[in-house]
UniProtKB/TrEMBL annotation:
This is Amino acid degradation protein. Signal peptide: none annotated. It comes from the Bacteria. It comes from Salimicrobium humidisoli.
Length: 534
C-alpha cells in the first residue's frame, strides 16, 4: 500500500511537516525543501526515478521542489500547487515554543482555554480540531498532495501528476514566480498536456461561517502607492512650506474604502481598497524641519481589471485629491494672507524617470537607482519608494507633487468558472461530498485569500501588465513576473483544500475529519474525473 493513505498516517505526516519550522525568511524555510526531498525519496517510484525530483531556485537562493510522476500512458497532466512557508509565531506568546507541535499544543491549550476567543474555545473542547501554525495554511494541502502522488505512482494512475511546492508565498510569491518557468520547462521536456492547476489552500471563512468551499478562481491584488513631495520649512515659519503629511491626508481620504475600486462578478465583490502604510521619510531622529516627503501605500483587489485599469483609476483619484488639497491649501493661504507655493501636481513614476533622465542623463540616473537597489536590508516596497525619493530630490522644481507608482507584489486575478472541465468537476465533487459524507460544498468563484494560482493561465492583454512594468521602480532588478510563460500555461485552475479556521492567527486550526478523511476522497474524485475525460 502506498504511503500516507490512512487518517493516522496523514496526521503523522502533517505534524512532521509542521515541525519543520519554515517561517518566511528564516533558515527553516531554506532547509524545508531538503527535508521534503528526503521524504519523497522514500516513495518507491522516486527511488527508481530520482531525476523526476528536482529543485528550482529563487534569486536569493531559496528553493522549491518539483516532483513528477509520469504515467507513461497519457500526456494529460495535473499540477498540484502548494507553499510551505508560514507566517511568524510571536502571536502565540508564552506558548510560542509549541506553535510547530500541533498535537502537544492542542493538548496544552486545554489548560489555557480562558485565553481563547469563544468560537476557538468551543472548537478546542469539541476535540475535532488540531491547532498550530501552518496546519491549515498550508502544510495540510502539501500533505494531501504527497499522499496523492505516492498513491498515483504506486497504483499507476493513467494521468501524470506534477507536485510543485514553493517558498515565499506569504510575502512576495518569489517561489511561484520562479516555479512558472520551471513548470514550463518540465512541460516542454516531457511533452505534457497540462489539464488542470490544482491548489489546496484551505477554505477561508468569516467568523461564524461553517460552510465548506471550493474555488474556481483566485482574486487579484495590486498595490498602488505614492510619494508626496511638498516644501520644507522651519516649524516656526509654517506657512513658508507645505508638509507632505498634509498632502497625504487628501489622497488617503480619497482612496480608503473608495467604491470606484470595487468590482462585482458572478455575485461576488472585491473588498474595498485600504491604506497599508502612511509615513513621512524624515528618518527616526527629531527635527524642527517639517516633513516634506512622505509615502502612502494602498491595497487594491481585482477580478477583471488589469494593472493598467487600476493605474488609470488611481491617477484619477490622485488628481481629485490634489484638487481638494489645492482648494483647502488656497483657503488657508487667503486666511493667513500669504502667497501659495504653487498647486500640487500629479505625475506617474515613468514621467518622473523620463524627466530626470533628460535633466541629468541616463547614466547618472542609472547610478542613482543602482545605489538604492543595492540596499538589501530594505524590502522591495521600501526600495521602490526610495528610488522615487532619490529622483525627486534631484528634481525639486517639480514640487509640490504627488508621484504615483506601483509597489510589489502584484497578483493577477485568474478565473475558470466558465471552463467546461471545471464546471463538470464542481458538479462531480459536490455530488460525491453529499453522497459520501452528507457534506455540502459551496462553489466560490474567487478565492479571497490570495494564492499562487495568480501566476498561471494569464489571459490579460500585454498592455495591461506593461503599465505595472513601466511604473514599478524595482521592476527587472529586484522583482519580475514571468508574464510570457504564464500566458503559455493555459489550463483551468481550481482550489480545493481542507476546512479550518483562523489562518495567520494564534488560533489557527484544522478540522481533522475533513482533512484526514473527507479531503483525500474528494481530491481523488476530482483527479479521477479529470483523467477519465475524453
Amino acid at each position: 500500500m502506498a504511503q500516507w493513505q490512512t487518517p493516522e498516517e496523514l496526521e503523522q505526516l502533517l505534524t512532521e511537516l509542521v515541525s519543520w519550522q519554515s517561517r518566511s525568511w528564516t533558515e527553516g524555510e531554506r532547509i524545508f525543501p531538503h527535508h521534503l526531498m528526503n521524504k519523497l525519496t522514500n516513495v518507491p517510484y522516486f527511488r527508481e526515478n530520482s531525476r523526476n525530483l528536482t529543485f528550482f531556485k529563487t534569486p536569493d537562493g531559496r528553493e522549491g521542489v518539483n516532483a513528477l510522476y509520469l504515467s507513461g500512458r497519457s500526456r494529460r497532466t495535473i499540477v498540484l500547487l502548494s507553499h510551505f512557508d508560514t507566517v511568524n509565531t510571536e502571536d502565540y506568546g508564552h506558548l510560542e515554543n509549541l506553535a510547530f507541535h500541533p498535537q502537544r499544543l492542542t493538548e496544552i491549550l486545554h489548560d489555557y482555554k480562558e485565553e481563547l476567543p469563544g468560537e476557538a474555545r468551543k472548537d478546542l473542547e469539541s476535540g475535532e480540531y488540531l491547532f498550530g501554525r501552518g496546519v491549515m495554511d498550508m502544510k495540510m494541502g502539501l500533505a494531501l498532495h504527497m499522499s496523492i502522488i505516492a498513491r498515483a505512482s504506486e497504483e499507476k494512475w493513467p494521468v501524470n501528476i506534477m507536485l510543485v511546492t514553493v517558498p515565499d508565498e506569504e510575502v512576495d510569491s518569489a517561489g511561484m514566480r520562479e516555479a512558472v518557468p520551471a513548470i514550463r520547462d518540465t512541460q516542454q521536456r516531457y511533452d505534457l498536456d497540462i489539464t488542470l492547476f490544482l491548489n489546496s489552500e484551505p477554505t477561508f471563512q468569516e467568523l461564524g461561517d461553517d460552510h465548506f468551499y471550493m474555488y474556481s478562481g483566485s482574486i487579484g491584488k495590486i498595490m498602488p502607492a505614492a510619494l508626496l513631495y511638498g516644501k520644507e520649512t522651519h516649524v516656526g515659519n509654517p506657512m513658508s512650506g507645505l508638509t507632505a503629511n498634509y498632502m497625504a491626508t487628501f489622497l488617503t481620504q480619497k482612496m480608503e474604502w473608495n467604491p470606484e475600486f470595487r468590482e462585482t462578478e458572478m455575485g461576488e465583490s472585491t473588498p474595498l481598497p485600504i491604506s497599508l502604510r502612511q509615513k513621512d521619510l524624515m528618518g527616526t531622529g527629531y527635527s524642527t524641519q517639517t516633513p516634506y516627503r512622505a509615502q502612502v501605500l494602498f491595497n487594491a483587489f481585482l477580478f477583471k481589471r488589469s494593472a493598467k485599469d487600476i493605474f488609470e483609476l488611481f491617477r484619477k483619484t490622485a488628481e481629485e485629491a490634489a484638487e481638494a488639497c489645492n482648494s483647502s491649501y488656497g483657503e488657508v493661504c487667503r486666511r493667513e494672507d500669504v502667497q501659495p507655493l504653487g498647486d500640487v501636481q500629479v505625475m506617474e513614476y515613468r514621467e518622473l524617470l523620463h524627466y530626470a533622465e533628460r535633466k541629468l542623463g541616463k547614466d547618472i540616473i542609472r547610478i542613482y537607482i543602482k545605489e538604492v537597489m543595492e540596499k538589501e536590508e530594505e524590502d522591495d516596497r521600501e526600495v521602490a519608494v526610495r528610488i522615487v525619493d532619490k529622483l525627486i530630490l534631484h528634481c525639486q522644481e517639480l514640487g509640490p507633487v504627488i508621484i504615483l507608482l506601483f509597489a510589489t507584489p502584484y497578483y493577477p486575478a485568474v478565473n475558470s468558472s466558465e471552463d467546461p472541465v471545471v464546471m463538470g468537476a464542481v458538479d462531480v465533487i459536490q455530488q460525491k461530498a453529499k453522497e459520501a459524507f452528507d457534506l455540502t460544498v459551496t462553489q466560490v468563484h474567487y478565492f479571497n485569500g490570495i494564492s499562487d494560482l495568480s501566476y498561471v493561465n494569464y489571459n490579460g492583454e500585454t498592455e495591461g501588465w506593461k503599465a505595472f512594468e513601466r511604473n514599478s521602480p524595482v521592476w527587472g532588478e529586484r522583482y519580475t513576473i514571468p508574464f510570457e510563460d504564464m500566458e503559455k500555461l493555459k489550463a483551468p485552475v481550481m482550489n480545493l483544500g481542507p476546512y479550518g479556521k483562523d489562518a495567520h492567527k494564534r488560533t489557527e486550526r484544522l478540522h481533522k475529519k475533513n482533512a484526514f478523511q473527507e479531503m483525500p476522497v474528494l481530491l481523488e474524485t476530482l483527479i479521477d474525473y479529470i483523467s477519465e475525460r475524453d
